[in-house]
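Minutes, project check-in
Item: structure for the 163-residue chain
Input as provided by the requester:
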Amino acid sequence: MKSLLTISFKITPLEYAKFLIASYYRKPTTIILAATGLYSLIMPALVEYGVLDDYNKGLYFSLPYALVVLFYPLVMTALIILTRIRNAYLKQEMLYEFDDEGVHIQGEDFKSDLTWAHIREVKEIAGFLVLKPSAREGYLVKKNVLGADEITYIKNKIAAAKG
C-alpha cells in the first residue's frame, strides 16, 4: 500500500520529560496527592504566622512526606529519564508512515506495524499525539510535524476502525 503520510522526527529527553510530567499531573490521584502535599506545607505556615488560628490536622503530613507527595511526579519523571537515557527510542530518528492499512513505525533497529484496528485510542498530551494499542503502551508522534488535517485524518482512521 502506498504511504499517504510520512513523517520523521527525534524526541529529545526534554520533550519526553515534559510529556511525562503532563501525563502524571493529568491523573486525579496525582492531583489529590499534590493538593494534600501543598496543604500540608501551607497550613502549618499560616498558623505559625497567625493568619489562621487552627487547621484540620487529619489531612496534615509531616514536612518530608508533604514534599514527597507534592513532588512525586517530578521525582518519577527524573527517575524515568535517568533509566531511559540509554534507550534507543530517545536517541534515534523515528520514521512514521500512515496509510489506509495503519501505521508503520521504523527506527534504526526495529520496525513495527499497527493496523488502525489495533489502536485502542489516541490522546493529545503535551505536544504529542499518543497512539495507544494497549492501556500501558503508546507511540508518541510529535504534533508539530503534523498539520491539523493530518491529525484529523489519523483520528478519523482510528475511529472508523473501531466501528
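Outcome recorded: The first strand starts at residue 5 and ends at 9.
No further action items on this chain.
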